Amino acid sequence: MQRNTVVRAVHDIGTALWFGGALMGAVALNGAASQVSDRRERTRVANAGWNRWAPVNALGIAMNLVGSAGLLLANKGRVAAQQGVVASSVAKGVVTGAALAATAYSRKLGAELDRAGDVPAEGAVKPDEDTPREIARVQQRLRVMQWVVPGLTGALVVLTSLHGEQQRPAEVVRGVVRRAFSSC
Fold first, then answer.
1. Domain tally, the chain
2. pTM
């Protein structure tokens, strides 16, 4: 077996950026926006932070995808021969697709808030009684999505850990033997 340190590092750093940024935004950035004294500036302040993070997030996502493709290519023989690796790879692909969709949808919602400008709100994703109805709906959707993205990217971290465990020599042997006997 050869080492794939660079491609693995690209993948893992990308996943860390994607997960960490989403979680920090939900906990810290969106939460801190409620501390802005002028309630009409709360969504704008949070959006300014998210807009600054967007290029880094895009880089993290790109690194994750490039790293994932590189790891799949480097491990294609093991994927084909070892029982359980196809299933975990498919699961990781599905979760990655869901995380991409959730991230894109969250960005779309954030852009809607950004275009709204200064509107009164309790926080970045929390409307108050004076928040325009359409903006309140966007905030309520973002309030959910702010947890969906780190949930899905956290699941990618777990699936990456599973893939690492599947690469242990004893697991490879066991999976290859099981695959061989299951096709008999």
1. 1
2. 0.90
